[in-house]
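Appendix B. Chain record.
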Amino acid sequence: MVREYLETSGCRWLALLAYFGQTDGPSGHTNDGKGCGHCDNCERAPSPARAGAAVRHVEFGDGEVVSCDGGTLTVLFDDRGYRTLAVDLVGPTGLLQRRR
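Structure tokens predicted for this chain:
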């Protein structure tokens, strides 16, 4: 279990909450799938790759990142539904931008 925690590319806070069977923790953090924004993995994630981020794709339009798992993003686009995208392709190429 420690190895799984160490090797996760997701939010470490959510991993700990799940391990102990909790849905929320101190300081108002909740297990809403969006991550804590403070652990090493959340800090390292490119900004459009964070769950809950409002994004715009050049072809698919506006959407919201549902999850980021390793090298893939799952995004719910307003007009196209769910799409799974490779982080390596959408980030550096500018295909996926964070909406403000």
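Further analysis of this model is presented in Appendix C.
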